[in-house]
Amino acid sequence: VGIPQEQVYDVLIIGAGLSGLCSLYHIRQRFPSWRVKLLEAGSDVGGTWYWNRYPGARFDCESVSYGFSWDKDLLQEWHWKEEFSPQPETLKYIQRVAERNDLRKDIQFDTRIRSAYWDESNHTWQFIDESGREYKTTFFVSCLGFLSTPTLPNIPGIGTFQGEKFHTSHWPKEFDLSRDFAGKRIGVIGTGATAIQAITEIAKEPSIKSLHVFQRTANWSAPLRNSEVTPETMEKYKAEYESIFERCASTPMCFLHQADPRKTADVPEEERLAFWESLYARPGFAKWLGAFSDTYTDRTANKLYSDFMANKIRERVHDPAVAEKLIPKNHGFGTRRVPLESGYFESYNRPNVHLVDIREIPIEAVNAQGILTSDGKQYDLDVLIFATGFNAITGAFSAIEWSAKDGRPLLGSSDTEKGQRAVWVDHRPQTFLGITAPAMPNMFMVLGPHQPFGNATRSIEHAAQVVSDLLQYCKDNNYNYVEPTPEAVEQWTEHVVECGKGSLSNEVDSWMTGINTNVSGKQTRSVARYAGSALEYRRRCEASKLAGWKGLQFA
Ligand code: NA7
Fold first, then answer.
1. Which residue spans adopt a coiled-coil conformation according to this UniProt entry (predicted)?
2. Which of 43, 99, 232, 253 is deepest in the core (most CB within 10 A)?
3. Which H or E run contains 425?
């Protein structure tokens, strides 16, 4: 009521990253007469690759395993210049996807959704953006991204710093490292995958004055071993795309790497070391995902492999005390997502690069000049970079105020102001297949909680396919209402928790286990991603579909 007809849709998609573009493509192909719109907060397509422009941002997975398999002409046209594509090239690829498929005509940029309201009386969602503009839709597809809401560290005085400061995902546009950081004293807080890429590039820049890295938790990291893709190699890849994607589909996380089936203890020590050396010498995630099959479930096996990796760090860092600080002590290799690096450890061999262990001596405050640690030491800085990660997985939903079915908030603690229980209490997701959620009728998620992540494009393509199959079912049966049954939600959520059992990763604090010390409600571990294999996940989606979408109720 009161919403102009042109703002009333059959399907609204939110987010123009790979998830949103893939969903838009499939939905438009399948339902050409439907009114479909994609709303995006940024000024162009790209999502993660639009926002994260920091120096060193690139894939850790093979470029040729990342493109959309359905745009076959583009696969033949596109020449990936590097085996592990840097951000500017990846963004160009995504822009080319939008251009070739004429996707921009259905996208409204610079539109950030502020609130969402479920109207039970006519089975529609109503959205309001930051400018107060309203949109009405029957179905909506959440393509908000699982690492898209940056978090700043909860350190006192953070707003008082007088120099330049920014989060890695809001890096200044038109930035030039040698021009903009020349002569500057730079500080980086955080040592996750982002920081490891950025620090390596900043440290290499000869014109910087100094770089201080404030490390709370050391991270395991291993060589990326990137290289150029020659025209001859690219021709070979183009001919092999089908088998490349088939191989991805056959592995647990849809990357090109498969674990070695042997168990660590069954392999004699000499052979074991030679195998690990060969993994270490290979490009990409081979050294993470190609390890012995028990590496991430058996503590002893994990310890042996971690010791091997620790020695690699010792070999590469000149100062033994710094090397020891860079070796993780409270989690084993590969139990967190392994950042890949191109000279990260050698950064600390430079005289102007300093590691500050803030686990040992915490930051007391940020002040106008820089950072003060609890031993009274002041680090004066010109630039302060927050490589402090994201309110992951459920986090993107927290930027929107939700009024779900019966007026329930989506996120919150159990006792909300209205006395109503949030759908996802303390960021603990409840879903069915990771695609639908209780009390959120007609919402479908691509890369939402309880979905397998891994090679993101591969997961996205599958989820977007499931969503469009579901929409087809609604269309064919004239349904304008779909919601998972409480039993299906309970069983699926239990299944997801069950899948995580026995994995050492689930015993470690990280964004994958729902921990973010900067976000209230994210202090205890939860299972927010599908930790079973992508194969099993796809099998379960297919089983529901074949049984007439068992687990969902329609009207
Ligand atoms: P991550 O992996 O979440 O890393 C964030 C880093 O910031 C990590 O080292 C954190 O230390 C550190 N951090 C966060 N808050 C603080 C505070 N308050 N004080 C000090 N240090 C802090 O994010 P990334 O952006 O690197 O990577 C995210 C994913 O993007 C990555 O896995 C890839 O898949 C792509 P902590 O470990 O919590 O002690």
1. none
2. 253
3. strand 424-425
- The pLDDT tens digits of the residues spanning 39-85 come to 999 999 999 999 999 999 999 999 999 999 999 999 999 999 999 99
523 lines ligand 1 (CB under 6 A): no
Mean pLDDT (the chain, rounded) = 96
| pLDDT score for 324 | 98
Burial (0-12, 13-18, 19+ Cβ within 10 Å), 120: exposed
> Nearest to residue 381, comparing CAs of 196, 215, 209?
209
Q: Is 152 in the pocket of ligand 1 (CB under 6 A)?
A: no
Give the distance, in angstroms, between the CA of residue 381 and the centroid of all CA atoms in the same chain: 30
The pLDDT of residue 1 is 53
Residues 6+ apart with CB under 8 A from 122: none
- Residue owning the nearest CA to atom 33 of ligand 1: 193
Q: Which stretches within 48-152 are classed as H helix?
A: 48-51, 72-77, 87-100
- Rounded CA-CA distance 260/275 in Å is 10
190-204 pLDDT, tens digit per residue, is: 999 999 999 999 999
Q: In what order do the strands lie in the sheet with 210-215?
A: 164-167, 383-386, 185-189, 210-215, 353-357
Does 335 contact ligand 1 (Cβ within 6 A)? no
Q: Is the ipTM of this complex over 0.90?
A: yes
For the Cβ of 518 lying below 6 angstroms from any atom of ligand 1, the answer is: yes
Q: Which DSSP category does 390 fall into?
A: B
H helix or E strand, kind and range, residue 453: none
Cα 407 from Cα 282, distance rounded (Å): 53
Q: What is the tens place of the pLDDT at every residue in 213-253?
A: 999 999 999 999 999 999 999 999 999 999 999 999 999 99
Cα distance between residue 286 and residue 257, in whole Å: 6
Q: Which is nearest to 241 in space by CA: 88, 87, 63, 92?
A: 63
Q: Which of 489, 529, 223 is nearest to 392 (CA)?
A: 529
Q: Within a 10 A sphere around the Cβ of 189, how many other Cβ atoms?
A: 25
Determine the Cα–Cα distance for residues 253 and 456; give it in Å rounded to an integer. 9
pTM here? 0.97
Which residue's CA is the closest to the ligand 1 atom numbered 18? 153
The tokens 């687990």 sit on which residue?
551
Q: Tell which residue, 514, 530, 529, has the closest CA to residue 425.
A: 514
Residue at 348: amino acid letter: Y
Alpha-carbon Rg for the chain, nearest whole angstrom, is 24
150-161 residue pLDDT tens:
999 999 999 999
Helix, strand or coil for residue 365? Answer: strand
Find, among 385, 454, 282, the residue nearest to 55 by Cα.
385
Residue nearest to atom 2 of ligand 1 (CA): 192
pLDDT, residue 341, reads: 98
| Coil/strand/helix, residue 457 | helix
Collapsing DSSP states into helix, strand and coil, what is residue 265?
helix
What is the rounded CA–CA span in Å between residue 498 and residue 450?
12
Q: Which residue has the least CA distance to atom 28 on ligand 1?
A: 389
Q: d(Cα 253, Cα 246) in Å, to the nearest integer?
A: 13
Give tens-digit pLDDT for 280-320: 999 999 999 999 999 999 999 999 999 999 999 999 999 99
| Token representation of residue 174 | 């038109």
